[in-house]
Specification:
mainly alpha; two-stranded antiparallel ribbon; about 65% helix
């Protein structure tokens, strides 16, 4: 399976469910996602940082985590709007996307 890493990370941050295609993400997969995002400069969101903030539990950490999750949710919604617009343009052209994420 191919998974869009930034989309997956934003979805995890929004829903706080650490899974991909119904399969739980383990620590090495989470670390690999973060490394990939950083190496390819695919955005500011890092799951390891979110987990650190959650574990810390201080008021400032909670506030920072809430901010990260809110920004991820907004960016995810913008991305979904772009996907919907693209689907509407494809409608009638005979092409059909196969990704379940586009249908959500």
């Amino acid at each position: 399976w191919l998974i869009d890493a930034p989309y997956l990370v934003m979805q995890v941050l929004r829903n706080w469910r650490f899974e991909a295609l119904g399969v739980p993400l383990n620590a090495s997969q989470i670390s690999a996602l973060d490394s990939h995002l950083k190496r390819c400069k695919l955005g500011p969101f890092r799951l390891c940082r979110a987990i650190e903030l959650f574990k810390d539990g201080s008021p400032s950490s909670k506030k920072e985590l809430d901010t990260i999750r809110t920004k991820a949710a907004r960016r995810l919604e913008m991305l979904r709007n772009v996907q919907r617009a693209r689907l509407q343009r494809l409608d009638g052209s005979g092409e059909r996307p196969t990704t379940r994420a586009l249908q959500q």
